[in-house]
Request: fold
Amino acid sequence: MAIRGTSRAFLWGALAIVAATAAGIGAAAASAFMPTNGRTTQPIGHYEFCRAHADACKATAARPTRVALTADLWRDLLRINATVNSTIGQVTDEEQYGRPEVWTYPDSGRGDCEDYALLKQRTLAAAGWPAGTLLLTVVVRTNGEGHAVLTVLTDRGDLILDNLDDKVRVWNETDYQYVKRQSEVNAGLWTGIADDRRAVFTSATR
Reply:
């Protein structure tokens, strides 16, 4: 399989910490590790999800941790991201539930962005990845729409599993504006993300 034959070279190339190349790009833009800025509000959809799935919304670790990423683990991320993306049909919550926002596992075989992320989180946790390294994350797309992805904390950077992309990318190699993510030590709490790249990139391209 092509992924297996090229994974080692791709791993170290794709996950190298990105150096700042444009004048004015700050440390947050240059770092492969997402900067956070303290506790923030929990999305209402996740709050309702936690009421139905209390075991998925509890303390996960005594302290933040990161997975030491190997070529085998990298292949697992690629496989799980692509498999979930290809097996779950994309549908809005309004179409499926008649409500604007429902966070749940897509056991029906259909779901929207946060449902993909929840399934990837559950699948990786079942495969042995520490729960505190698998964080639901809220972002804003370039068209202004809200979106949810899964952030995976590794020693090579914070990696994004996205239902809109079969590639697994370092967070600052995407074009999203990052808003908040689950806490590394408690899955029921959320942390703000200090993503200052939008202002920097706007001024750099004027």
